[in-house]
Write a structure and sequence with these properties.
The two termini are 27 Å apart. The strands form 2 sheets. The chain has a 15-stranded mixed β-sheet, with helices on both faces. Helix 10 (296-305) crosses helix 12. The chain is an alpha/beta fold. The chain has 14 helices and 18 strands.
């Protein structure tokens, strides 16, 4: 392996795996595999980039750090000389972490003193300017992310938000500095010393900005950011004589399809609404899950009744409705119950012959992917064609080949769900 990525959730893992496998013209990308947690065995030969999907975004800080360091150790054992810590392009975190503590731990383990921080993903409307994160033309704190049930983002200034999470200095790498060439990781501003431990919040408003950051980061042992930070990295290795990469994996899957949506984002709710106009949908009532009157068997029966019609089950709700349920029952209890329900349902879907599964939401995707991977005793997923920006088809090679699409809540066009199932069916 050349590059290793440690992602704090499963949708983010598939996002950066997609970026690494695509690369940029004319060189293209790297042969990439995504792993469900830290693998228990060595990677298959020929894999040039390995992405480890963790479920650490909202776990206790100590647990997130420990899992991330275990992932680092495995990636280093496979030969990786460059590591990316991948988090959401909306910098999902709390004032306590987990981005800062994990980034610190990885940097110390790799003996890095100046580390890039850049969540930008212009293709999905996420840009960083003057250290502030925008979602399209709106500040992060006004984009709807301020209502996130687990990681409400109430401050768009990434420098200030990150400084809450770290003892390191947080500096700013402006577009002006980048465009005058003063943006190498070890020397980015007049007031930053190479020996001072610093996080460098880098502006980026276009793909070209991210590609330039990648080019400047040749030789850096650690970068952190959204998937866009990886755009310009593969070509650095081609310059050093890396073998030609293979094209993204893709193969048709004619089995039945199912959709599981756990995200409460505005984009996912709009996608559910659009899907419901022509396809069967089933809304999960959280209190019924908590009192045991609604279980995975009921959801499986719904899927079986409509297995040819792109059926969708969702637990999504408005910010107000979600807040009320969390207030009544406790956010942790609600989240754990829904994740367990989705995981059990995913296992039963595979048993029932469903081989195309689309998932919306980071926490939901983590629960489903772990259940499906472990159910089939398989850890690695091949990266297939891209459905919408940041969302590829993932191929899981079990006795019954399975396709997954793990969608971050705010990603995808309005018709994403049906389009994803259709692309899994006809891809060649």
């Amino acid at each position: 392996m050349l590059i290793g990525a440690i992602a704090d959730d499963f949708t983010g893992a598939s996002d950066i795996a997609n970026t690494l496998s695509k690369g940029i013209a004319p060189e293209g990308g790297l042969r990439t595999a995504q792993y469900c947690g830290v693998p228990s065995k060595s990677a298959n030969s020929g894999i040039q980039a390995g992405v480890i999907a963790l479920k650490s975004r909202t776990s206790p800080v100590d647990e997130a750090v420990s899992e991330s360091l275990a992932a680092l150790q495995w990636l280093q054992s496979q030969g990786c000389s460059q590591i990316i810590f991948k988090y959401c392009s909306t910098f999902d975190s709390t004032p306590a972490g987990n981005i800062g503590p994990v980034a610190e731990a990885l940097a110390l383990a790799l003996d890095e003193t100046n580390v890039i921080v850049c969540p930008a993903f212009p293709g999905a409307g996420r840009t960083v300017y003057q250290g502030h994160l925008f979602v399209h033309d709106t500040l992060l704190s006004e984009s709807g992310m301020q209502h996130h049930p687990l990681t409400p983002m109430t401050d768009p200034d990434i420098r200030r938000w990150l400084q809450n999470q770290t003892t390191w200095r947080v500096s700013h790498l402006s577009l002006a500095q980048q465009r005058t060439g003063r943006f190498t990781p070890s020397d980015v501003s007049a007031d930053t010393q190479a020996t001072e431990r610093s996080f460098l919040v880098a502006d980026a408003i276009s793909d070209n900005d991210l590609i330039a950051l990648g080019t400047a980061s040749e030789g850096a042992k650690l970068l952190t950011g959204g998937s866009g930070i990886a755009m310009g990295l593969p070509r650095n290795f081609f310059k050093n004589g890396a073998p030609e990469p293979a094209k993204s994996a893709s193969s048709p899957n004619m089995g039945d399809g199912a959709i599981l949506a756990g995200s409460c984002s505005g984009a996912t709710r709009q996608q559910i609404e659009a899907h419901s106009k022509n396809h069967p949908v089933f809304g999960i009532d959280a209190p019924s899950v908590l009192d045991g009157s609604l279980d995975s068997e009921a959801l499986i029966q719904f899927f079986k009744r409509h297995r040819k019609d792109a059926p969708l089950v969702f637990s999504s709700g408005t910010p107000e409705a979600v807040a009320q349920i969390q207030n009544d029952y406790g956010s942790t209890r609600v989240a754990e119950a829904l994740e367990q329900l989705f995981a059990e349902t995913a296992r039963k879907l595979v048993d029932a012959g469903f081989t195309r599964i689309v998932v919306a939401g980071g926490e939901t995707s983590g629960a489903v992917a772990k259940a499906v991977c472990h159910h089939g005793s398989e850890e690695a997923m091949r990266i297939g064609i891209e459905i919408d920006p940041g969302v590829p088809i993932l191929h899981l090679e079990t006795s019954l080949p399975i396709c997954l699409a793990l969608k971050s809540g705010n990603f995808g066009a309005r018709d994403f769900f049906k389009k994803a199932l259709d692309m899994m069916k006809v891809a060649a």
